[in-house]
Amino acid sequence: MDQDNRVLGRKGARELSEQEVEAVTGALKVRHTLTPCFVDRKQQLVNGDQAIGECGG
Amino acid sequence: MKIIVLAPEDDNHTAPIKWGLEKAGYKVVCWEGLGWSGERQASLSVANGNSLTLGPHSVDPGDAVWIRRPEPPLPNPKTAEPDKKFAGLEYRSLYHSVAYMLEHLPVWCINKYSAARTIIQKSVQLHLARQCGLKIPATLMSNSPESVREFFARGGRTICKGFTPHVWQKEGQRSVAITETFELTSQELPADEVLTYAPAIYQELVPKEFDVRMVLLGNRIYSYALTNTEKALDWRQDAGLGHVKAEIIATPPEVEQGVLAFARKSGICTGSLDFGVDAQGQWWFLEVNEQGQFLWLDQFNRECKLMEKFCAFITASEGSTEPLEAREDLFPSLAEYEELLKNEQVPPVNKPRQEMDPFLSMEA
C-alpha cells in the first residue's frame, strides 16, 4: 500500500500488536473493564447520530 | 418519578447503574433510540398539551432523562430501495424533534440535548473554558496547509490529534492501529496535499507531569490524577494495558470555580473532563466529553465510588446542592455488580452488534 497518501492521523496512530490487543480484550473478559477508549469504540456513539471521542491528550 | 435512560440496556455504564438504582428501589427504564420496531418507536404529540412516548414508556413530569448513548436511528430495512434515503432523513428528523423537545418538557435532562450537541465541538469547549478562566493550550483546527505551517512557525513543541477516534485493522489480522495524540515537528510535516486529506487539531504541547480525569456531577467535581508508567502523551491505551494508576486528588479552588462556570455557560450538568498538570502545578484544560466513561475509575481505585455518586446525583432533584456523599451509601458499588456479572447473575454488557462500526476501517 502507498503510505504517502495516508492521513496524518493514521501516520501518528499507535500500533497495538496482537498481544497488546489480547491484553486489553483479555482484561475486558476478566474484569468487564470499562476502558476509556479502545475496544469500547462502539460506545463512542452519542445522541443518535453524532460521534464523539475521548482521545485527547 | 422514574429514570429514563436513552441507551441500550447493555451499554457498559447503563447496565451497572440501572442495576444499582433498581437495587435502591428506583424505577429505571431504557429506550435504545429511535427505530422501526415497536420498542424503539416514538410518538410526540403537541396538540393538546405535550405528550411523549418512547417505545412502551411515557415521559412523565418529574422524570429524569439520562441521554446516555442512544443508538443511531434505525429505519425499517424493508423500506423500498428508492425510499431509503428519504426514510433515513425522516427518522433523523423525528429523533431530533424528540431529543430537542425533551428539554422543553417538565423533566430533568442529563444533559440537555442542545447543550450536548454544542459542547461536543472541541472549538467551543476550548473557547468556553478560556472564557471561564481555565488555562488552555494554543490550538489550531485546520485543513489548510498554509495555516498549519504558520502555526508551527510560532515555535515550541506541538501535538497533533484527531477530532474523533478511529481504529485501523489489517485484513485478516488482530493487530490494530488506533488514533492517538502524537508529537509532530515542522520537519515531520508531510506534503501540503496530505494535510488536506483529513483536518486535524494542532495544539501547543502541554509539558505534563501527570494527567487528570475530572468528573462533573451537578455542582460537585471529582478529580483523579492519572500517572502513566509509560509516560506516553496519551494515557488511554496504556490504561487498557494496565500501565495507569488513578489517585483521588483535590481540585484547586480556581479550577473548580472555572469548571463550574464552564458547566453553567455550556449548560451541561455532567461530563468527564481531561486536564494536563505541568511542573508548576498549573491545570490545563484539554477537553470534555459530556457522556464520557467514568466507571473505569472505580475499577482502578475502589475509593472513587463514582457508581454510588452518579446514582445519588441522578436521583437528586435538578440543581440540588446536597452533597452526593450524604446519599451515596444508599447505592451498591460497581464491585458488587461485577461480582454478579462474573457469576453470570446479571446480563452481559456490550453484546456484539451486527451493524457497521463507524470507527473501524480495514486496510491491506
Give an overview of the whole structure:
The complex is a heterodimer of chains A (about 55) and B (about 375). By secondary structure, chain A is an alpha+beta fold. Chain A is about 30% helix and about 10% strand. Chain A has helices at about 10, 20-30, and strands at about 15, 45, 50. With about 375 residues, chain B is an alpha+beta fold. Chain B has helices at about 15-25, 85-100, 115-120, 120-130, 145-155, 190-195, 235-240, 255-265, 295-300, 305-315, 335-340; strands spanning about 5, 30, 40-45, 50-55, 55-60, 65, 110, 140, 160, 165-170, 175-180, 180-185, 200-205, 210-215, 220-230, 245-250, 270-280, 285-290, 360-364. In chain B, helix 4 (about 120-130) crosses helix 8. Chain B is globular, with a radius of gyration of 22 Å. The N and C termini of chain B lie far apart (about 55 Å). Strand 1 of chain A pairs antiparallel with strand 11 (about 175-180) of chain B.
Fill in the keyword field for this structure:
heterodimer; A: 57 residues; alpha+beta; two-stranded antiparallel ribbon; elongated; B: alpha+beta; 25% strand
